[in-house]
Specification:
single chain, alpha+beta, 11 helices, about 45% helix, globular
Length: about 300
């Protein structure tokens, strides 16, 4: 997988600095809701997490190419003893060979709790549940899997497998957000990682490759051809969704990350059924599509 990624990046003309680490992470910790005496104890969390994410190696392969941009925002809402309550916002992007980035993943956890002591030494523990790091590690592994899928068809499988292993360990501890049994479409990290590994979702993962390599990457060279390709890909994705017959967390997260991009690139594109397709694929953001693309 690493070699294929390397060759594709080379063919696209992208700079290829090599690094064992995969991420270029920026962490923001907002503690305005805490009383001043509580802010001191958590003041080093931002530095500790940035050091952890930017120095840790999460995969088994040497990482080729630029590090993945990651934005991690933690809004701390309270403290009881050494435990904090918080909201977690995770975003990752993919580099484009023409410059800039395209969004890939946006995960939100509004009910997160974790213990933390000032100046803690954080270390990657893939075989045990850690209330602070496991939700972050899971998001990182999903981001790495998605990024890899956009450079090689099904190239992110090993990362999704690692994410699923983490989710299983957390579910065994009855960790919130990793529930073993959920209703269809209800968010659970365990359900999400299982979905990426389900053979039924291989079409969607191949779609991710085509969307980025045949569509987004080609926009600067031939915008009309690239938009036509993307339009056709969305038609195929709608057929897949209708055949799937059940809600898909992976599809929902794709559009959570991409709906603004889709509005921007398709603005002014003459395709009579595009708006109806996007609304059917992503009813959650239907109003946004109508405002951005409606005539």
């Amino acid at each position: 997988m690493a070699k294929i990624r390397y060759l594709l990046l080379l063919a696209l003309g992208t700079a290829l600095p090599t690094s064992a680490q995969e991420l270029h992470a920026r962490v923001t910790v907002i503690t305005d809701a805490l009383s001043p005496e509580y802010r001191y104890d958590i003041a080093t969390l931002q530095q500790d997490l940035e050091q952890y994410l930017n120095s840790q190696r999460f995969g088994e392969h040497e990482w080729e190419g630029e590090r993945i941009p990651v934005e991690l925002t933690i809004i701390v809402t309270g403290k009881t003893g050494s435990w904090y309550t918080a909201q977690l916002f995770f975003q990752s992007s993919r580099h484009l060979h023409s410059g800039g980035t395209t969004p890939l993943l946006r995960l939100i956890d509004l009910q997160w709790s974790f213990p933390y002591s000032r100046g803690s030494l954080l270390s990657y523990q893939p075989l045990r549940y850690d209330p602070l790091l496991t939700p972050i590690d899971f998001a990182v592994l999903i981001a790495l899997g998605l990024d890899s899928d956009t450079y090689e068809e099904l190239g992110g499988t090993s990362y999704f497998q690692r994410a699923h292993q983490l989710a299983q360990i957390a579910a065994a501890q009855n960790a919130k957000g990793f529930e073993l049994f959920t209703e269809p479409g209800q968010f659970s990290r365990l359900a999400l990682s299982a979905e990426y590994l389900n053979p039924r979702m291989e079409f969607f993962r191949r779609f991710l490759f085509a969307y980025h390599v045949d569509g987004i990457e080609r926009l600067p060279q031939n915008r009309t051809e690239a938009l036509s390709t993307l339009d056709s890909l969305l038609t195929e994705l709608l057929r897949f969704k209708e055949a799937l017959g059940t809600p898909s967390l992976a599809l929902e997260l794709f559009f959570d990350a991409k709906y603004r991009e889709l509005i921007e690139i398709f603005r002014g594109w003459n395709s009579p059924r595009l708006l109806s397709r996007l609304r059917a694929l992503d009813p959650k953001h239907g109003t946004d599509y109508e405002r951005g693309l409606g005539q």
